[in-house]
Amino acid sequence: MTYLLRVVLPDRPGTLGALASALGAEGADILSVDVVERGGGSAVDDLVVDMPSSRLPDVLITAAEAVDGVVVESVRPFAGALDTTRELELVEAITAHPEEGLTRLAEGVPRLFRSAWALITETTGEGRRVRRVASSAAAPETEAAELPWLPLSKATVLDPDAGQTVPDAWTALDTELAAAPLGRPERAVVVGRPGGPAFRPSELARLSHLAGIVATITG
After folding, report:
1. Buried b (16+ CB within 10 A) or exposed e, 136-175
2. What is the pLDDT of residues 183-202, one digit of tens each?
3. SS3 call for 188
């Protein structure tokens, strides 16, 4: 069974090695490590680890947090590709086919951000009618009747409890949501990550930067 483990750990030599040793002692095989965020003496890393099917994921949490200063933010099953598409490769593909740019963005964002789905939505006309522009294969089919948080001025975490209304289907399975304006405030790319972890400021910055580049390419 493969899991995605997000950890916060001290940004000092040897800590990641100690974490790898602790996980390895419990039978976990680390398949990849991505640095999500770094600063203030700590780092946030995403680890894709393979565990024997007989072992529970709780073992990963116990082993990781036995290392001094390590905190596990989340652990969830992972079924994504290990050779994840990077921003540059996606941008190159969109540049080659700008007429398919928004569709390719919606399909590519989940792999970049290790999320389940993405969609592009916008409000149009005086009645602020909501229109879905593009979506990935796993995006909820439920259409939004209204999105009062549009227009959007910057990338943000969407929190329905804070009045940022979204369809219930978007938040099923404790889905974390993030959105960024795409070319204009009335259009946004929305990313859903069921079960977490929460989107970090660095991830919002990446999403915003990517959306800005794609908007320029596609016009």
Report:
1. beebbeeebeebebbebeebbbbeeeeebebbeebbeeeb
2. 999 999 999 999 889 999 99
3. strand
d(CA 159, CA 168): 12
Which two three-digit tokens encode residue 157? 């975490």
Q: Which residues pair with 124 in a beta bridge?
A: 129
In the CATH hierarchy, which fold is given to the domain comprising 2-77? Alpha-Beta Plaits (3.30.70)
Report the pLDDT value the prediction gives residue 192, as an integer from 0 to 100: 97
Token pair, residue 54, equals 């007989």
Does the pTM surpass 0.85? The reply is: no
Query: How many residues in total does the chain contain?
Result: 219
**Interval 86-143: pLDDT, tens:** 788 899 999 999 999 999 999 999 989 989 999 999 998 776 899 999 999 999 999 8
Q: Where are the domains of the chain?
A: 2-77, 87-218
Beta bridge partners of 7: 45, 72
Rounded Cα gap, residues 25 and 176, in angstroms: 32
* DSSP secondary structure letters along 110-146: HHHTT-SEEEEEEEETTTTEEEEEEE-TTS--PPPS-
CATH class of 87-218: alpha beta
